[in-house]
């Protein structure tokens, strides 16, 4: 589809902020986001302990529930509850409805009691067909709510347990309609959100069965837990979990002891070519096609639903932080997966609203998706930097201010995300580079380059490297911004880049070598080689003399031969 096609023409000598690289990075963010949510309190799947509209004490879990009740006892009680439900479903006498609702309520209580509910026991005993039968149209709301609640918690189980809900999906989707009561619709949305959180296969089934439009319409009201639940379910429905290269996966596994989730997010493959003694830089080369499945189409479909964009903007502007957080996650996936959605967000007030939320909130749960959304929008649409983030405009100054706030944060994820956003702004015009260079961000970045954890230092290095080179066309050698290069080197950034050369991360090593080439070539009065030698840069480059990575080996050897050959030091 042309409208969702990638723009391969935006380039930068150090870090490309557009085209395949930007799209790949935004999708990698989507991968990391999905994994982080699964590990955090805002999980991809959520157990329902309190009903969506819990005004009746019977609809809530008792305060004295036994969290650590013996699993065997729970399973025995579950088998008994399923048998009771079978009896209630077939019973036709007086009080049949009360008996059925009572049996459903007991089943729901058992599936809500433990941190690890007896889902397997319920499925093996035949609970799913009975619960599906209880979702039939014309049933009382109390019955529908209890049945949907049971299915919600079953869907929060293991993958094979979630897949057992396949027969229930058509009815759960049907009850999202306007004819359903709000509590029933919300509980069904919750169940579908758990199903969508399981993976691509079930998301595809939900999309084919038409789950997206009714969920999208549930986002349109101004407030309420229903809007929040619908937003969460939609973010699960459109997100992508499988867009990852084998190289990135292997790197993440090898770095599991060192925050593998963060590492996954910083794996941005790039290529470097050596022509003679000069290095040139190009955008990402994807060696094998990446199948995104239906997710990017789903994101485009969502943003095109009537009223959804206006609802997103309204919630970002006025909603409480809990609702704004869920809506911000929707924006994360929209801007990561769909160029159409990104373009529509840019042309709206989304950028200003994201900046306002970053400036006014101190909630980490809200700041993370808002900052990622801002980064996706800036990285994904050239119009944003060129025509919206104009130097001297209030919005541009506000963006820099909130990014500085995040750089000062104690939270590493905010620092890293802020550096990534800045690196893409720094990939813009010379005026954008000067704006960052002259701001409060520059001294913060210099300090982080020498003191921050590795993944943050690598993102920071991209910013500082981009500040030192002017935009260039094609694959030619980048033109230097001498003032920035001389100043940043004078303020002590070179050791940080040489440390990156020594790292085991090939991308970081390449970035360090690129910056060393700028120093060797661009420092006035031939000072570059002396500065590199003083910081043991020659030793750092020589470790690549027989390196298995051909690109790094050629680049390092070319720099050593050119600047530290037989004639080096003879003038002295």
Architecture overview:
The chain has helices at 19-39, 71-90, 96-113, 119-124, 127-134, 141-155, 159-163, 169-174, 182-196, 200-208, 212-217, 225-238, 246-254, 260-266, 295-304, 308-318, 321-337, 339-347, 350-360, 364-380, 382-388, 394-407, 412-425, 430-437, 441-451, 454-467, 482-490, 494-501, 506-522, 527-534, 537-542, 550-563; strands at residues 271-275, 278-282, 469-470, 479-480. It is mainly α and 572 residues long. The strands form 2 sheets. Strands 1-2 form a two-stranded antiparallel ribbon. Residues 1-13, 15-23, 30-43, 61-69 and 241-294 have low confidence and may be disordered. Pfam families: Arm. Residues 1-30 are annotated as: Disordered.
Summary, kept brief:
By secondary structure, this protein is an all-alpha fold.
Number of strands: 4
Order of the strands making up the biggest sheet: 1-2
* Strand residue percentage: under 5%
Task: Indicate the structural class.
Answer: mainly alpha
Q: Biggest sheet, open or closed, and with what strands and sense?
A: 2 strands, antiparallel
Low-pLDDT residue intervals, each spanning 5 or more residues: 1-13, 15-23, 30-43, 61-69, 241-294
- Overall outline: elongated
Fraction of residues in H or I helices: 55-70%
Radius of gyration: 27 Å
First and last CA, distance: 62 Å
Quaternary organization: single chain
- How many helices? 32
Averaged pLDDT: 81
GO biological process, one term: protein transport
Keywords: Protein transport, Repeat, Transport
Family: Belongs to the importin alpha family.
Organism: Populus tomentosa
């Amino acid at each position: 589809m042309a409208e969702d096609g990638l723009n391969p023409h935006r380039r930068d000598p150090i870090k490309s902020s557009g085209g395949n690289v930007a799209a790949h990075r935004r999708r990698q963010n989507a991968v990391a986001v999905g994994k982080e949510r699964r590990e955090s309190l805002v999980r991809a799947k959520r157990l329902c302990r309190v009903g969506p509209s819990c005004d009746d004490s019977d609809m809530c879990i008792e305060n004295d529930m036994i969290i650590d009740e013996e699993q065997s006892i729970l399973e025995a009680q579950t088998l008994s509850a399923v048998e009771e439900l079978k009896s209630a479903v077939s019973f036709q006498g007086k009080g049949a409805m009360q008996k059925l609702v009572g049996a459903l309520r007991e089943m729901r209580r058992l599936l809500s009691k433990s941190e690890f509910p007896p889902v397997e026991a319920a499925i093996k005993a035949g609970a799913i067909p009975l619960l599906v039968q209880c979702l039939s149209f014309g049933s009382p709301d109390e019955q529908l709510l209890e049945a949907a609640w049971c299915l919600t918690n079953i869907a929060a189980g293991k993958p094979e347990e979630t897949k057992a809900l396949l027969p229930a999906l058509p009815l759960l989707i049907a009850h999202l309609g306007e004819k359903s009561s709000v509590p029933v619709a919300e509980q069904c949305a919750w169940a579908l959100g758990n199903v969508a959180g399981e993976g691509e296969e079930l998301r595809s089934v939900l999309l084919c069965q038409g789950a997206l439009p009714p969920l999208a319409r549930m986002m349109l009201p101004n407030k309420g837990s229903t809007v929040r639940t619908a937003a969460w379910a939609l973010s699960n429905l459109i997100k992508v979990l499988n867009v990852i290269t084998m190289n990135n996966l292997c790197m993440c596994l090898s770095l599991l002891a060192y925050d593998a989730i963060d590492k996954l997010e910083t794996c941005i493959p790039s290529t470097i070519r050596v022509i003679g003694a000069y290095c040139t830089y190009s955008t990402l080369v994807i060696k094998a096609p990446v199948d995104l499945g239906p997710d990017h189409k789903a994101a485009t479909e969502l943003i095109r639903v009537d009223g959804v964009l206006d609802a997103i903007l309204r919630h970002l502007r006025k909603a409480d932080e809990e609702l704004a957080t869920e809506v911000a996650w929707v924006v994360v996936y929209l801007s990561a997966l769909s160029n159409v959605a990104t373009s529509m967000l840019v042309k709206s007030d989304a950028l200003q609203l994201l900046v306002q939320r970053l400036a006014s909130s101190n909630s980490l749960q809200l700041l993370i998706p808002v900052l990622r959304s801002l980064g996706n929008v800036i990285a994904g649409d050239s119009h944003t930097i060129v025509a919206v983030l104009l130097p001297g405009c209030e919005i541009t100054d506000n963006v820099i201010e909130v990014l500085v706030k995040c750089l000062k944060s104690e939270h590493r994820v905010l620092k890293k995300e802020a550096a990534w956003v800045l690196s893409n702004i720094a990939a813009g015009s010379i005026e954008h580079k000067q704006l960052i260079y002259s701001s409060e961000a520059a001294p913060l970045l210099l300090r982080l380059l020498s003191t921050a954890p590795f993944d943050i230092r690598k993102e920071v290095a991209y910013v500082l490297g981009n500040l030192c080179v002017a935009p260039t066309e094609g694959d030619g050698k980048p033109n230097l911004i001498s003032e920035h290069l001389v100043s940043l080197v004078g303020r002590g950034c070179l050791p940080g880049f040489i440390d990156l050369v020594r790292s085991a991360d090939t991308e970081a090593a390449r970035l360090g070598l690129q910056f060393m080439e700028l120093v060797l070539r661009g420092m006035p009065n031939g000072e570059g080689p002396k500065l590199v030698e003083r910081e043991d840069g020659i030793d750092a480059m020589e470790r690549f003399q027989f390196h298995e990575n051909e690109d790094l080996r050629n680049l390092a050897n070319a720099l050593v031969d050119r600047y530290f050959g037989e004639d080096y030091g003879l003038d002295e």
